[in-house]
Amino acid sequence: MSNRRDFLKQAAASAGVMFTGCHLLKQQAHAQTPAPVRRPVMVGGRRVTTIDVHAHVIVPEAEAMMGIKTPTGDASVIEGTMAADRFHRMDEWRTDMQALSIRPIWYKLERDLAAKVNKLQNETLARLCAQYPERFVAFASVALQYPEMAAEQLEEGVRKYNLRGAAVTGQINGEELSARKFDPFWKKAEELDCLIFMHPAGIPELDKRLAGGGYLSNVIGYPVETTIFLSHLIFDGTLDRFPGLKICAAHAGGYLPSYAGRSDYGCVRTPSACTGAKKHASEYLRQLYFDSIIFTPEGLRHLVAECGASQIMLGTDYPFPWSTTTVDQVFQTPGLSDADRRAILGENAARLLKIKV
Description:
Layout: H1 4-18, H2 24-32, E1 41-43, E2 46-48, E3 51-56, H3 60-65, H4 81-93, E4 97-101, H5 111-131, E5 136-138, E6 140-141, H6 147-159, E7 165-168, E8 171-172, E9 175-176, H7 183-192, E10 195-198, H8 216-219, H9 221-235, H10 238-241, E11 246-249, H11 256-269, E12 289-291, H12 297-307, E13 312-313, H13 326-332, H14 338-352
Parallel strand pairs: 3-4, 4-5, 6-7, 7-10, 10-11, 11-12, 12-13
Antiparallel strand pairs: 1-2, 8-9
Helix pairs in contact: 1-5, 6-7
């Protein structure tokens, strides 16, 4: 198609064909179950559109191209009754909109297959958002193992498909995203003024250490990966080369916001290790963005104190039940003004994702 408008017109027209299901009995049962009342979130007498920046989705057809069989009934799929189930849960959690992302699992694919997989995913997400414009926006999928192609996919995603940025992980086949080879991607993201959502995928080198009880590969490994990712962007100069970048880190930024003071002091102790950064590490916290998945009101209060309410957005990790009371947590957090609450609940995301509310 020649342009984004043509694509979205066709997407809206064909959306009803795409999302179908054969689970008739489940549909009938769901239809007989009263949906929760969609309760508007009010702050200081003003209605707030709540926007969840951290919500997962998968495209089974794309996974099949990669040799992956999607389990029947996987809640990350949005089709048929599963779309209704998602909206039911969103209403229950009081989230009006989700910014959908697909966690990258295609970084080892060869070029042609990576191009096909990501094109299919981006077209599917565009159709989904066109079908449910009041409920979804989405991040593009990009093949960062080929940085120049990833930059092109990002531009196509934003300009043609109306996607709002891209989703990435913390490293690409063992390489840090602060490496100069990835600069074409960061340059394009800055040029497009779009949000890059970073979600960790694990640190293979730590698999042995994190094995055993406690689900440590996720509970510890994911925040560690995020901390490493952000720290490299700081100390390798990426955030200085591209000061207009807008990056949102999942899981409240890992450990960096709470421990940036140690990074600052590390540069006092060893100045030669910090020549790549133009500012103290803690100063970059006001240049980065974070979701609110930090579990307690006190944790969110501290995150605001370190980073500022202007840098934080709701995150639920849907459909994974990590944070089912995200909206309530914002209201329970001490010290927030009404303006702070409105910012975290939706205004920051609306601005960054270019959502008209």
